[in-house]
Amino acid sequence: MSALPRRGFHSGRLIPLAFHVDYWDYLGWPDRFAQAPFSKRQRRVASLNGSRTVYTPQLVLLGQDFRGHSRLQTWVERINQTPARAQIALRIVPQSRTLRIAAEAEVAETDLRREAHVYVALYENNLQSDVTGGENAGRTLHHQFVVRQWIGPLALDAQGRLRWSQSVALAKAWKQPDLGVVVCVLDRRNGDTLQAVALSLDD
Question: How far apart are CA 177 and CA 200, in angstroms?
């Protein structure tokens, strides 16, 4: 995840998000970035892929379990050449310990409107963990694109449009310059990404 921007995968090509799961916490070192809803979300992704098991670390691309890491460049180039099936506008206004997020989304294709849901992710970069237990005991792990808050699903109206805004409170430990927001439109039937946009606070 940390190496993706250095490899040329900027947000105009690929938008990564790291959902830390909590089902390994019993090993003696709870992941402080993990959230139970993220574990539930991963199980739903597995179900959509026809699998009864989950594993970490896992890469999901367009809603599908993706194990061909050596072919990521080829896949991303192919995806980038595919016309977006949703339009998204995103605006964020930093305030004192809050972010005002405003998003608009539209899906033109009638058949997709009923199945499309919008999600908003608040993520943070430049994080680290000093691991004290489990298989990584004694190591320092560095994290990028860590999802801090996951909002949704937000439904489109009958015309396939959404206009949404919300002030999100920032936890004291979150570093505002390292935060960013992602808005994505997903097909709830298979997790496919119809479009996604990202904006970081250091832009």
Answer: 8
User: What pLDDT does 29 receive?
Assistant: 83
CA distance 62 to 17: 12
- Spatial separation of the C-alpha atoms in residues 105 and 4, rounded to whole Å: 27
Distance between CA atoms of residues 7 and 52, nearest Å: 33
Q: In the chain, what are the domain boundaries?
A: 5-200
Mean pLDDT of the 52-79 span: 92
5-200 CATH pick, 2.40.33.20, 2.60.40.10, 3.30.565.10, 3.40.50.150: 2.60.40.10
Q: According to the model, what pLDDT value does residue 79 have?
A: 95
Tens digits of per-residue pLDDT, 31-55? 999 999 999 999 999 999 999 899 9
Across-strand partners of 136?
none
Q: Is 122 exposed, middle or buried (0-12, 13-18, 19+ CB in 10 A)?
A: buried
Q: Which of 138, 123, 154 is nearest to 35 (CA)?
A: 123
Q: Is the pTM of this model over 0.90?
A: yes
Cα distance between residue 147 and residue 125, in whole Å: 9
CB atoms within 10 A of CB 101: 20
Q: How many CB atoms lie within 10 A of CB 142?
A: 11
